[in-house]
Amino acid sequence: MKIYFKKKQKARRAFYFYPFQLLLMTLKENLIYVFLWVLFFGFITRAVASKYGVPYLFLYPYYLNHVGVRAYFILGFSCGGFIMAYNISSYIVNSFRFPFLATLERPFFIYCLNNFPIPLAFIATYCGCSIHFRTYDGSPFSTIALHLISFLLGVTIFLLITIVYFYFFEKGAFKVLGLGPPKASRLRLKNERSVTANEKWESESHAAVEHSDRTWYVETYLGGGMKIRLARGYQHYDTKMLDRIFKQNHQTGTVFEVASIVSLLLLGLFRDNRVFMLPAGASIFLLFTTFIMFLSAMHNFFRGWTPAVALLLLIGLNIVSQYHWSFFSGKAFGLDYKAKPADYSYDNFEKMSHDTARFKRDEQNMLAVMQRWKENCGSDKPDLVFINTSGGGLRSAMWTFYTLRYADSVLHGKLFQHTGLITGSSGGMVGAAYYRELYLEKQEHKISDLNNKQYLSNISEDILNPVAFTITTNDLAFRLQTYNDGKYKYTKDRGFTFEHKLDENTDSVLYKRLADYKAPEEAAQIPMMLITPTIVNDGRKLLISPIGMSFMTGYNIDSSVTYMPLTQSVEFTRLFEGQDANNLLFTSALRMNATFPYITPITALPSKPVIEAMDAGLLDNFGLEETAKFIYTFRKWLQANTNRIIIIQIRDQYKQQKIMDNAPKDIMQSFTFPVNQFYSNLFPVENYKEDRMMEYLSNWYQGKLKVEYFQLNNAGNDDISLSWHLTDREKRQVTESMKVQDNQQSLEDLSKLLK
Q1: H or E segment at 624?
Q2: What's the Rg (C-alpha) of the chain?
Q3: 22-34: buried (b, 16+ CB within 10 Å) or exposed (e) per residue?
């Protein structure tokens, strides 16, 4: 290794200062660590995944339904775990590059002390970003200071725990040579001196030493008492002894890592307990802590073979997962997975499409439902309301619930009285389902006031914390716990956790079977709800309803037209009749309809071939297609028995988006531009398709038709994150959106229409 500044002692000792050399070594040799740190810096500076609210998981941690001292302490403790995992892993992988460490009494402690630049920069950046964010959020400085002190305390305690562990178990040259403390002290004083401002920089022997390419030259380092010391020469030590020292310390570090990983996995067994639902930011720290600990533990055993072994391990896991375990898919609770699988084939589609007797029976039943709806409205020709609500995670759930409750209150209950069908996707349907259930409970005299503030608080409560913790401690490892749902048994995963947390937030009012809604829907006590998750295998829709809706799966093509249509939709209760479809948990139906990639698992259903269902927003974010199909099927009855059709769209963002200047400005942007634009234009393109659909609908429907919009104020620099977690500021922004002039105008229009 070439040594620079041989004749410039001060410059050489500054350049070969151990912290600086460790930083250079990390940038050169350990890009995976660099990537992880860049990722975390991106999170806290809101440069990465801001749209999905990931930065808020760190800047605004949530624990036990509260942002406070405990949340910040746990986040700090997990951050300390990541920092020490980085130090231990880096020490195991790189300590051989710095042989002088083995000559010290506490090599690992010195390594950590000198490996501070990146962790210290991260903590400083976090504190700065947290102060800026919380100040903008309106928090008093005293509260911000208290929370940051809690965070720093959490970091410090974990660092101290690790340092104490290594204090008792790590070995340096003194212990290996059998030197006691007195001799060790004399030896240290003889060979190692502090560098002070008054010392004459001398001893050129360091610069003359030959170094191999595998070692990094260090001349000064930060020692105990935060003093700069000269690195001791190691050439007079036996090489095998130095290797033995490092090997023993690596084993000590590996034991700590394995114990930490096992402890984390055991902690996951108690994840159903609210106390163990850690802040999602802490779970992200723990996830990457486990990752780098696992890699470094493997490196301790396999050394240079680690990449090859890791690759073989991944291949093996991939093969095994085909038969037993998959991170990406889960099950729908309530279905019988041991029964003969449903036949998902073109032959069965053809058979179902020619079941005209069933079509007619379902149509007649629906006409009876609509007649009861008409009678409940108390008018010869009432206005019929269709509600289309968009996806968008928790922001959509809260906005939809708040809009329905606010509008129904202003209209003195007439909104839901006139509503016939609710369609949509993701969080919007979760919020609509919650309000619909409360509306039913009020009719059944179980509750008295739909405007209780607690209900809005319930639907906006965090769901992400337990889901993130389950991913870290269960789904990426071993799924050991099971769940008995009456007749059937399932393995617990993050899908179960999502439903369990949703039930907990909403006081379990949604813990019902699909069949439980058949009677109130047929009696027109509550609006019908059509849940339409997307079948991933082929892009078809799965229509989930307790009432038979086979007529929604067919085509009405004039006999004069020669055309071969494909089956676009499949009725859930008919396809899975033999798998106990009506026993499906309603929360499982909502989860299928709101599956956000990776956060909740795609739902595998008991069919042959196995079909998987996920978010309805992939095909139709509002359910307007189902609304149009329903109107077309019953157009004659609607024209004769209703005064007007009102379609209410509850949107989680403005329909008319600002035209952005997206022209690529550099090579990287040019490279990612086509893919980014493809995904960013999915929803605007859907708006164009909806407008065309409304054009066709207005031409063939002869009755009066009105569309009203309630749009979430979600634009500019105050975007509300697309997540299952909302900050207090975001919640305020949701409720204040109702004050926007356009929304007030829509409310006024509805008041005039539904007199």
Answers
A1: helix 624-633
A2: 32
A3: bbebbeeebeebe
Give every CB contact of residue 269 below 8 A, 6+ residues apart in sequence: 480, 481
The CA-based diameter of the chain, rounded to the nearest angstrom, is 104
- Identify which of 290, 288, 232, 226 has the alpha carbon closest to the alpha carbon of residue 262: 290
Angle, in degrees to the nearest 10, between helices 393-410 and 728-736: 40
Statement: residue 231 has pLDDT above 70? yes
CA pair distance 631, 699, nearest whole angstrom:
13
Distance of alpha carbon 337 from alpha carbon 606, whole angstroms: 5
Whether the per-residue pLDDT at 235 is higher than 90: the answer is no
Cα separation, 262 vs 268, whole angstroms: 10
E runs forming strands in 403-526: 419-424, 482-485, 488-491
Burial 305-322 (b: 16+ CB within 10 A, else e): ebeeeeeeeeeeeeeeee
The 10s digit of each residue's pLDDT in 123-145 is 999 999 999 999 988 889 999 99
Neighbours of 482 (CB within 10 A): 10
Instruction: Supply angle C-alpha 463, 39, 52, rounded to 5.
Output: 35
C-alpha torsion angle, residues 394, 400, 406, 412 (rounded to 10)? -140
Laid out side by side, the sheet with 644-651 consists of 528-529, 419-424, 383-389, 644-651, 705-711
Return the exposure string of 545-563: e unless at least 16 CB atoms fall within 10 Å of the residue's CB, then b. Answer: bbbbbbbbbbeeeeeeeee
What pLDDT is stored for residue 169 in this prediction? 67
Residue corresponding to tokens 């912290």: 19
> In 3D, which of 708, 625, 718 has the Cα closest to residue 425?
625
Rounded Cα distance between 53 and 733, Å, is: 15
Give the closest residue to 334 by CA, choosing from 529, 605, 125: 605
Where is 330: in which H helix or E strand?
strand 329-331
Buried b (16+ CB within 10 A) or exposed e, 342-351: bebeeebbee
Please give the Cα distance from 438 to 432 (Å, whole number).
10
Here the tokens at position 640 are: 């004769």
More confident position, 107 or 329: 107
For residue 392, give the amino acid letter.
G
585 phi/psi in degrees, rounded to 5: -65, 135
Structure-block tokens of residue 44? 């806290």
> How far is Cα 199 from Cα 196, in angstroms, rounded to an integer?
5
Residue 740 amino acid letter: V
pLDDT over threshold 50, residue 525: yes
Residue 420 φ then ψ, to 5°: -105, -40
Least confident of 39-43, 602-606, 661-665, 684-688: 661-665
Whole-angstrom distance, CA of residue 123 vs CA of residue 120: 5
Whole-number Å distance between alpha carbons of 291 and 394: 29
* pLDDT, tens digit (0-9, with 9 covering 90-100), for 278-312: 899 999 998 898 888 888 777 777 767 777 877 88
- Burial environment of residue 57 by CB neighbours within 10 A (0 to 12, 13 to 18, 19 or more): buried
What is the share, in percent, of the chain residues with pLDDT greater than 70? 86
Distances (CA, A) of 142 to 58, 59, 365, 462: 19, 16, 63, 25
**C-alpha to C-alpha distance for 84 and 163, rounded to whole angstroms:** 9
Res. 276 pLDDT band, cuts 50 70 90: confident
Give pLDDT, residue 354: 83
Residue environment code for 182-195, b if the CB has 16+ CB neighbours within 10 A, otherwise e: eebeebbeeebeeb
Number of residues assigned to the chain: 755
